Amino acid sequence: MKKFLIVLLTLVMITPSLCITARADLELASPSTILMESSTGKILYEQNADEQRSPASITKIMTLILIFDELSKENIHLTDEVTTSAYAKSMGGSQVFLEEGEQQSVETMIKCIVIASGNDASVAMAEHIAGSEAEFVSRMNARAKGLGMENTNFEDCCGLTESTNHYTTAHDVALMSKELITHYPQVLDYSSIWMEDITHVTKQETKPFTLSNTNKLVHSYDGCVGLKTGSTSIAKYCVSAVAERDKIRLIAVVMGAPDYKVRFSDAASMLNYGFGICKLYVDENKKNPGKIDVKGGTKKQVGCTYEGEFRYLDTEGKPLDQIKKVVKLHKNVKAPLRKGDIAGKAVYTLEGSEIGHVNLVYDKNVPRAGYSHCLKEVWSCFLMAA
User: Fold this and answer.
1) Which residues are annotated as catalytic?
2) CB within 8 A of 22, min separation 6: which ones?
3) Among the three residues 255, 277, 299, which one is the final residue of a domain in this structure?
4) Stated pTM of the model
5) Are the C-beta atoms of residues 231 and 57 closer than 8 Å to each other?
């Protein structure tokens, strides 16, 4: 017994992530789940998170990533009109009943996808962006690979397929959810809408249609702001739920739940657990970290700034008010220097141990001083001495 306790203690000490999972006494009915903090990517709980399963409509998270990629590149715009093809209209499952030839704006299509899980809207957007759903799916798989989604393969853009070659994992769903809400947080403005009317305008008629959010946690769970649900006979019931409290944003993924109530209750249980153990430290003191002397440059000094925000997630009840920061700037730097190059780092420690750092970068270019610049400096000094 004594040897067993020693081995167990050793495992806990060398695998802190396992320790977090072990402390969670969650009675979940879903076979595959994961809970992730979005800003750090820290996994707070997982259960069969790398098991390949059919994702149903949470496939559309990747579809949304590609849509927002195109918006960020200005290849498309929210006001652009998208025309529904006969193929897009033919989609079954969850749909918003777009007619062939019907035009809706990109923004309306996004709402149809993220609020009402419209398969027809997803295919219409795929065709609008890539020319065909097949080409769009190829881009989805390439994007997934770039995110490190090693256990994922898509065969359509909406999750309607029942092919065994269309699969992902709870862990991979968390990764793509993190990518979407981190780089394109505006998607949460859409996914948090409970109900909204759109207007179908066709040759036959003009009529309103109400989009109702398929994610009931938006209405019932404090802080839930999205993200996406899905269900088919093979996938059963899935959800990737995003919730925010006290600057902490969590992603709870449930796959294969036996019914729609269980997927939401399991997601809520994980979110409750996460908010119960998490404390987040964010360094909001970003005053100028100082200037650095430059040798051989057109300027004698250069300023620097923080490359990004420092965030530290605690799940062990540590005294975050005791976090200390030390700024370490490079010395004896020589021109040329480029704006954005590393100038040093801000190191954060807690209880004597480093918990992370943020790079400091030069805030402007400093070219090497040429002959004309040196001559100008000498002449300036002469005039001042005269």
Assistant:
1) 57, 60, 117
2) 12
3) 277
4) 0.85
5) yes
The residue segments making up the domain with residue 176 are 13-277
The domain that contains 306 carries what CATH number? Answer: 2.60.410.10
Using N-to-C axis directions, what is the helix angle for 106-114 and 60-72, rounded to 10°? 160
Per-residue pLDDT of the chain (386 residues; tens, 9 = 90+): 444 333 333 333 333 333 344 445 788 999 999 999 999 999 999 999 999 999 999 999 999 999 999 999 999 999 999 999 999 999 989 999 999 999 999 999 999 999 999 999 999 999 999 999 999 999 999 999 999 999 999 999 999 998 999 999 999 999 999 999 999 999 999 999 999 999 998 888 899 999 999 999 999 999 999 999 999 999 999 999 999 999 999 999 999 999 999 999 999 999 999 999 999 999 987 778 889 999 999 999 999 999 999 999 999 999 999 999 999 999 989 999 999 999 999 999 999 999 999 999 999 999 998 645 554 555 455 555 55
Whether 2 has a binding-site annotation, put simply, is: no
Beta strands 333-334 and 291-295 are parallel
Task: State whether 36 and 163 are in the same domain.
Answer: yes
